């Protein structure tokens, strides 16, 4: 990720800390991307489930709780899915927010580090 | 979440949970003379250290994966117990299709369940009232979440040490290249 300074530029403890911070943010960024992908998938699944529920004629449907499929009335399942949707979309929102803030911090650090080390440092992903 | 944890007062944390901290090098020349090492032996020392860090990182990542799998498992259990509790006293039975063996399902009617049996591991299963089961599972969940948090902090510390070591390797290497060039030309290089 980093290719330490050219022969002339002195690396201070402060620079090192900025590089560390950048590394950590970059890591978190990748974690967030995975988490966001996962949250989006579960959101879509819930969306599909509630659509199916609208189409079906069954009054009682099997709803997975833990490892078993409980027989639950359609109305109750509808409510529970709505609740779950709310939870996941809220989570998704939070993750997106964090991603924005991580990206902002990263570009701030890039400015500082490139400003000092010019092309002696590489902060881009291969 | 990603706030700096190892900032300290300019110096480094010596170690965290058995992971030695990496030394930050202010000046390569001074660093080498202080240790009495030449460039090659200091580079191989740093490379070796880096390998050790990577090994620890793999171990911690495996632990993290385990915990990340365990947490949803406990949450599922809590879900089931909550469902049983909600049914309790309504007079209604909980009908559920459950897996008897891989791919084979059967139907169960659970009437007025007051208790559940929790598998504690090591071939031990214990019957708990629904309330006690919820408490126990909740406690396990809290513990797992707390361990995960500590683990994430450990990993962050470790990655900082990896970064410091990588930067130090690059700097020692660059310093060496620079020195060689000076020696060859007999004067500092004009174009760089």
TrEMBL record, chain A:
Molecular function terms from GO: unfolded protein binding
UniProt key word Coiled coil: yes
Pfam families, A to Z: Prefoldin_2
Entry GO terms, CC: cytoplasm; prefoldin complex
GO biological process: protein folding
Keywords noted in UniProt: Chaperone, Coiled coil
Coiled-coil blocks: 22-112
Protein family membership: Belongs to the prefoldin subunit beta family.
Known partners and oligomeric status: Heterohexamer of two PFD-alpha type and four PFD-beta type subunits.
Protein purpose: Binds specifically to cytosolic chaperonin (c-CPN) and transfers target proteins to it. Binds to nascent polypeptide chain and promotes folding in an environment in which there are many competing pathways for nonnative proteins.
Protein name: Prefoldin subunit 4
Automatic annotation (TrEMBL), chain B:
Keyword Metal-binding appears in the UniProt entry: no
BP-aspect Gene Ontology terms: microtubule-based process; protein folding; response to cold; tubulin complex assembly
Cited CDD domains: Prefoldin_3 (cd23156)
Gene3D superfamilies listed in its UniProt record: 1.10.287.370
Keywords assigned by UniProt, alphabetized: Chaperone
SUPFAM superfamilies, A to Z: Prefoldin
Annotated GO CC locations: cytoplasm; prefoldin complex
UniProt-listed InterPro entries: PFD3, Prefoldin, Prefoldin_subunit_alpha
GO MF entry, a single one: tubulin binding
Similarity remark: Belongs to the prefoldin subunit alpha family.
Main function: Binds specifically to cytosolic chaperonin (c-CPN) and transfers target proteins to it. Binds to nascent polypeptide chain and promotes folding in an environment in which there are many competing pathways for nonnative proteins.
Complex formation: Heterohexamer of two PFD-alpha type and four PFD-beta type subunits.
Protein's recorded name: Prefoldin subunit 3
């Amino acid at each position: 990720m980093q290719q330490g300074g050219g022969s002339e530029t002195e690396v201070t403890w402060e620079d090192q800390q900025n590089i560390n911070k950048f590394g950590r943010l970059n890591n978190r960024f990748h974690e967030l991307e995975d988490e966001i992908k996962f949250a989006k998938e579960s959101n879509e699944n819930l969306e599909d489930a509630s659509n199916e529920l609208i189409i079906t004629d069954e009054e009682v449907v099997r709803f997975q709780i833990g490892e078993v499929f409980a027989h639950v009335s359609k109305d109750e399942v509808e409510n529970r899915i709505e609740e779950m949707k709310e939870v996941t979309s809220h989570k998704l929102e939070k993750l997106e927010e964090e991603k924005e803030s991580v990206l902002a911090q990263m570009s701030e650090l890039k400015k500082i580090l490139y400003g000092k080390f010019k092309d002696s440092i590489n902060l881009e992903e291969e | 979440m990603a706030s700096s944890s190892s900032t300290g007062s300019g110096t480094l944390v010596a170690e965290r949970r058995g992971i030695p901290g990496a030394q930050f090098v202010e000046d390569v020349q001074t660093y080498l003379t202080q240790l009495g090492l030449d460039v090659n032996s200091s580079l191989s020392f740093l490379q070796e250290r880096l390998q050790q860090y990577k090994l620890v990182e793999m171990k911690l990542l495996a632990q993290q994966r385990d915990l990340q799998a365990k947490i949803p498992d406990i949450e599922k259990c809590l879900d089931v117990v909550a469902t049983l509790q909600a049914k309790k006293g309504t007079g209604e039975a909980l009908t559920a299709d459950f897996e008897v063996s891989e791919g084979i399902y059967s139907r169960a009617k659970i009437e007025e369940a007051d208790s559940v049996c929790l598998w504690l591991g090591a071939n031990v299963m214990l019957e708990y009232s629904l309330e006690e089961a919820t408490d126990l599972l909740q406690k396990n969940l809290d513990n797992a979440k707390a361990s995960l948090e500590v683990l994430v902090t450990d990993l962050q510390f470790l990655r900082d040490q990896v970064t410091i070591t990588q930067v130090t390797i690059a700097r020692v290497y660059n310093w060496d290249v620079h020195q060689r060039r000076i020696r060859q030309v007999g004067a500092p290089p004009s174009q760089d």
